[in-house]
Write a structure and sequence with these properties.
heterodimer, A: about 400 residues, alpha/beta, nine-stranded mixed sheet, two-stranded antiparallel ribbon, 13 helices, 11 strands, about 15% strand, B: mainly beta, five-stranded antiparallel sheet, three-stranded antiparallel sheet
Chain lengths: ~400, ~160
């Protein structure tokens, strides 16, 4: 029996549609386009794919994508829950299927008309009685309706307990916008912002301002995982998966884990960090760059602390002075992130992580990027992976 | 981009912009496991679920005690006093039925459990973590009664 998934699998292909405010086509077509692109990028054919994994929140069924793209048989169908927490758990699913021999090549995807269609800023919707809706029901009457509200609650307590200011958040927003301004597929290509712009922008939900919040966009992104052995013979340098983990922690709610003793950190990130480091044999000092889920600037702080780049309560200082810039300690979200490239639920970030390993990012750091961390969303069951170059 | 004027905000809160005329807050989602809790609120009491086996208090209500797995429970009536553990001030986007800026807080009750609610009777700029508050249960519209919290006057 396999005792470790380290280096067993690799991301061999990535595919993305453009990112826009109005795709002008169905989410099924976006899904089919990005899945086809990822399969081609891997140097494979649709008939080579035998597993699919996606989001429970996706409106497009995997069987519809399969029949549209011409993937004939599936031996794995999986949908991962809880929105932004899901993206790297798709990779986790693919790794388990391939390392165990259940599948040969798995494609994961996310396709959404997140701007022209259903928008997350439009709030929690009405619907049937589920445990999920019962949970939202404790917040809806009070107007705590959007992701910005939920994340702001953790952020306010964090700022209070650690005497932190929003300067670190401002630097994150401005730095990532600089990356996006140089990234042709980013929604904010050619549109940098200044610190003055950050502070001049209105509050969305205090303490979060406009540029602390990600954009809502239309787009699709997909990836292909196969065995590392097979990936060696495919067109691109493989992004070998050193660690892949999913985690839900004590007293977990989706976005509203306000009942834990301490809400200034998110223990589900500790859980995935510990697993990723244990599997890979790596630690924070080994990671050269990171794609850190950034639906909001402040959730980057929680993740930097859980992945032990700095101590608890110190990330708001640690990020200042260019730490996350291309020549800093940890180049982060070099595509512009969800904040400034676009919101394809973290799968676009995975594509950038793979580009950093391949050495093909439009904002490729000059220093080495042998190991890259890619994470998923905050304040819900979450997931992360560590990818690296072929040894 | 500039902030909405107060008039515009109130207009949006009152009309929901272009949305149809449902000028009400969203309703709580009531099912088998929490109907009793909302029944107590409608009687003017703030209840906290209690495990009959081990005495652990829990909120939000669930059918089993996470600590001892007992399905037996009753409730205590909270004193209604607590402190602001965390809070946010919601500006955008405005939803019909709410007035902005809207203060939503996590309240830590004297009994130790926490509850999310609105703070009323205080300017958003005056809200601080740690200030003492007390519950005020009342109607927010014709058919919805909610436990809201207001600051305790400190002598």
């Amino acid at each position: 029996m396999l005792t470790s998934i380290k280096d067993e699998c690799a991301i061999a292909g990535i595919g993305q549609t453009e990112i826009s405010k109005l795709s002008g086509r169905s989410e099924l077509q976006l899904a089919a386009e990005c899945v086809k692109a990822a399969i081609e990028d891997a140097g494979l054919k649709p008939t080579d794919i035998d597993g699919m994994t996606g989001f429970t929140l996706d409106h497009v069924d995997e069987i519809e994508v399969a029949r549209t793209v011409g993937i004939p048989e599936l031996r794995l169908l999986s949908r991962m829950p809880h929105g932004g927490g899901a993206p790297m758990s798709l990779v986790h699913q693919a790794v388990m299927a391939i390392a165990s021999g259940m599948c040969q090549a798995v494609v994961g995807y996310r396709a959404m008309n997140g701007r022209s269609g259903a928008r997350y800023s439009s709030g929690v919707a009405e619907g049937p009685e589920t445990t999920d809706r019962i949970s939202w029901g404790w917040y809806m009457p009070y107007g705590l309706l959007t992701p910005a509200c939920w994340v702001a609650m953790h952020t306010m307590r964090y700022l209070h307990e650690y005497g932190a200011t929003d300067e670190g958040l401002a630097e994150i927003a401005v730095t990532q916008r600089k990356f996006a301004a140089n990234n042709p597929i980013a929604l904010f290509y050619g549109k940098p912002i200044t610190m003055e712009d950050y502070y001049d922008a209105p509050f969305i939900v205090e303490p979060l301002r406009l540029y602390d919040c990600c954009i809502e966009t239309d787009g699709g992104a997909a990836f292909v995982v196969t065995s590392a052995e097979r990936a060696k013979d495919l067109p691109h340098p493989p992004a070998v998966i050193r660690g892949a983990a999913q985690g839900s922690a004590f007293d977990q709610e989706v976005m509203t884990s306000f009942y834990r003793e301490n809400i200034t950190y998110l223990p589900e990130y500790d859980l995935v960090a510990d697993q990723c480091y244990a599997q890979s044999g790596l630690g924070p000092d080994d990671l050269d760059a990171a794609i850190i889920y950034d639906a909001f600037t402040s959730i980057i702080l929680f993740q930097l602390e859980s992945f032990r780049f700095c101590k608890r309560g110190e990330a708001h200082e640690w990020v200042k002075g260019g730490t996350l810039d291309l020549d800093g300690r940890l180049p982060c979200n070099t595509h512009g992130g969800l904040l400034s490239e676009g919101y394809v639920h973290g799968i676009n970030g995975l594509a950038e992580g793979v580009r950093l390993i391949r050495g093909t990012s439009v904002n490729q750091p000059t220093k080495k990027t042998d190991h890259v961390l890619v994470t998923s969303g905050a304040s819900m069951p979450t997931s992360a992976i560590i990818i690296g170059k072929l040894n | 981009m500039s902030d909405l004027s107060k008039e515009e905000t109130e207009k949006n809160a009152a009309t929901g912009g272009d949305a149809p005329a449902a000028v009400q807050r969203m309703r709580p989602v009531i099912g088998h496991d929490n109907r009793w809790w909302w029944d107590r609120i409608n009687e003017g009491e703030l209840p906290i679920q209690r495990c009959k086996e081990c005495g652990t208090l829990r909120h939000p209500p669930r059918p089993m005690c996470w600590k001892c797995q007992s399905l037996e429970w009753d409730h205590v009536i909270a004193s209604g006093r607590g402190i602001v553990y965390s809070f946010v001030v919601v500006h955008r986007p405005p939803f019909p039925g709410y007035e902005y800026p809207l203060v939503v807080a996590v309240i830590e009750l004297e009994e130790g459990t926490r509850i999310v609610s609105n703070l009323v009777g205080i300017e958003p700029g005056d809200v601080k973590i740690g200030i003492p508050v007390e519950v005020s249960i009342g109607n927010v519209d014709e058919t919805l009664k909610l436990p809201l919290f207001r600051p305790v006057n400190q002598e």
